[in-house]
Write a structure and sequence with these properties.
470 residues; mainly beta; 20-stranded antiparallel beta barrel; two-stranded antiparallel ribbon
């Protein structure tokens, strides 16, 4: 629905009500069609020269249960479950996210000229109650525990403690940790101008030009290190990108495009520009077409200061050829860290077979994953998969079976059972989960509730609600 349609209808009705005296003058409102002339749709407002598009999203998630015990069941590159029965205390997390984006577009001799403003607010509150045991020193006084880690919902750190002399071999206590993150109200997440079509110039505050896609594993459970770096391959140095930028991208034709940028010009230091950074150069070469998506990205900081401190690269390839799909990706950086990944899948009638491998320089890490997906009935899909990893010669693996069934046009049920074993854990873990997704219409309104239980008595209930509009 467009706001201008409402305006046109109201004015037209007013003209007819006055005997058509103003009907002949409706031609002055044809400028309200500027959105159509620019090929823009969705929720829009028009003036005589600009089309304003409005998009946004609101999302809320609540997690509750007993899932943050210190005795975790993990794998070399990530925690899978927690022995939450060790503390018998409730943990919970409340997460709220919302954003609103305005894009004003007008025509120019160089192509569309845009001004973009995106407002954002995020708030997260979490609590974790953990149980800690520490052996005393020979003098009978417990030394610093030094325990910290990701307790299911966020990072918690146990403070140092001491205890009086005694003959006990260990001491146990409960510590409550409350944490989270907050944008401290509504913030300006993006604010920039751009102009052009085949060649686009952008300046202001916006996301990075650095392309780190085309690297998602194809097997059902994915890979351990891939999950740790937010799916795919990642670097170790963390070059600062995005923020205040000047970017230029150009479509070279035949599916090829190129881009270059100066980013992080506002500095990574919140109190001012960090002179050691001196801006980040980003360059990207990409291709998209004929079932292929590929790119190579490079970023280096300190270019304006005349001294490159850190650099990183990322390259990815995804190709789809009839019933066959492949993915390959690699990341390298100035710390001599590297991370590579490759995968393939093939669809044969009702079955899809997929497999992935990955490796990283840290800890001589290697990992692998494989899965079989089958459409066993109308609206019912069966997944069987596993993943394995070795890190500093310690090994861990996970195997699972999952079923997804469409109960109706708006309801979908997903169930999963699995087993985890690792040299990093004192014991193995069985788990089971069930999730109900509900999409009753209303545009893009979605909601879900998920319950998970662990063999050591832990449990977790997650509920999420989301609505976006455009």
């Amino acid at each position: 629905m467009k706001v201008r349609s409402l305006l046109l209808g109201s004015v037209a009705a007013a003209g007819l009500a006055t005997g058509g005296a103003y009907a002949a003058d409706l031609g002055v409102l044809t400028s309200l069609d500027v959105c159509d002339n620019l090929g823009l749709s969705g929720l829009t407002i028009s003036s005589d020269t600009n089309c304003l598009q409005i998009t946004g999203e609101v999302k809320y998630k609540l997690t509750w249960g007993d899932y943050s015990g210190i005795d975790y069941v993990g794998t070399p590159q990530g925690y899978v479950g927690w022995d939450a029965d060790a503390n018998d205390n409730n943990n919970w997390e409340s997460r709220f996210d919302a954003w609103l984006k305005f894009v004003a577009t007008a025509d120019s001799d160089f192509g569309p000229a845009k001004a973009v403003i995106k407002l954002k607010q995020a708030s997260q509150v979490l609590t974790s109650v953990i149980e800690v045991a520490s052996s005393p020193s020979s003098s009978g006084t417990a030394s610093s525990t030094g325990i910290s880690g990701t307790a299911g919902v966020g990072t918690v750190t146990v403070s140092t403690f001491t205890t009086g002399a005694g003959s006990a071999s260990s001491y146990t206590y409960l510590s409550s940790s409350v944490g989270g993150s907050d944008t401290d109200g509504v913030i300006m997440d993006e604010a920039y101008v751009s102009i052009g079509e085949g060649t686009v110039i952008s300046a202001g505050k916006k996301g990075s030009l650095f392309n780190d896609g085309d690297d998602a594993p194809l097997s059902w459970l994915g890979l351990f290190n891939s999950s740790k770096v937010d799916v795919g391959v990642g670097d170790d140095v963390g070059v600062d990108t995005g923020g205040v930028v000047i970017q230029i991208t150009s479509d070279l034709g035949n599916g090829f495009s190129v881009g270059a940028a100066l980013e992080d010009l506002g500095g990574s230091d919140q109190n001012g520009i960090d002179s050691s950074d001196g801006g980040t150069f980003v360059g990207v070469l990409a291709y998209s077409g004929d079932g292929i998506s590929a790119h190579a990205s490079f970023a280096a900081d300190g270019v304006l200061a005349g001294e490159i401190d850190e650099w990183t690269t990322h390259a990815g390839f995804t190709g789809t050829f009839d019933n066959f799909k492949v993915v390959a990706a690699a990341a390298f950086d100035s710390s001599e860290y590297w991370n590579v990944l490759a995968g393939a899948s093939v669809t044969l009638d009702m079955f899809t077979l997929a497999g992935d491998v990955e490796a990283a320089s840290e800890g001589d890490y290697v990992g692998a994953g494989a899965s079989i997906t089958a459409a066993i009935a109308d609206g019912v899909t069966l997944n069987v998969g596993g993943r394995w990893a070795s890190y500093y010669s310690d090994e861990g693996y996970q195997v699972a079976v999952g079923v997804t069934a469409a109960l109706s046009e708006t309801l979908k049920m997903t169930g999963e059972v699995g087993y985890v074993s690792s040299d990093y854990s004192s014991e193995d873990l069985f788990y089971g989960s069930a999730k109900l997704d509900w999409a009753p219409g209303g545009g893009t309104f979605t909601s879900s509730v998920k319950g998970t239980i662990f063999s050591e008595g832990g449990y977790k209930i997650e509920s999420e609600f989301k609505k976006s509009f455009q």
